[in-house]
Fold this sequence. Notes:
Layout: E1 3-6, E2 9-13, H1 19-26, H2 29-32, H3 37-40, H4 44-55, E3 63-70, E4 75-84, E5 88-95, H5 104-119, E6 124-130, H6 134-142, E7 146-157, E8 160-170, H7 171-180
Helix pairs in contact: 1-4
Amino acid sequence: MISIPARGILLRDFQWDxxxxxxxxxxxxxxxRFYSEEDSGADRAGELLRMxxxxxxxxxxTKYQLAIVSDTGDLMGSCGIRIEPPGHASIxxxxxxxxxxxxxxSYAVDALLEFGFLELAVQRIFAETISENRAxxxxxxxxxxxxxxxxxxxxxxKGREWTTTVLAISRDEWQADRVRHKPR
Length: 184
């Protein structure tokens, strides 16, 4: 079981008893606005939770979708890192509206970057998001990622086409950034 403490939150493997809170989180219309209809369905939270729990049994493990939990035990969202050979990984984060603007997402992504670069030994971590998701892009830039590419109209859902943005950071960039921001 993975358990990563990070500034008043805990990133940990999902458990079956997380399902009611995870369903509640994913049912928020604002939460769903950058997800396809398929990913927003009523049964999707259960399907995802089943998948997240089964991924932790894989050997070697290459997918880590973790619950973001408050110090009081509230499920705040999830974040994940997926190894994509050779030496690359993708990350993602989803957070309940109640915790938007609190810093929780950046704490979680910071912890994922550290886990990816130090524990999983990947060389590059990237995030792909819908270009209109300005909060996700801002989050990536806050943790040191830079714009790598945009793919115009490469997704179609909710009756329209969407452009995606890819941001990334290398291990060398991440380590240099840590040295610059190290408390003295």
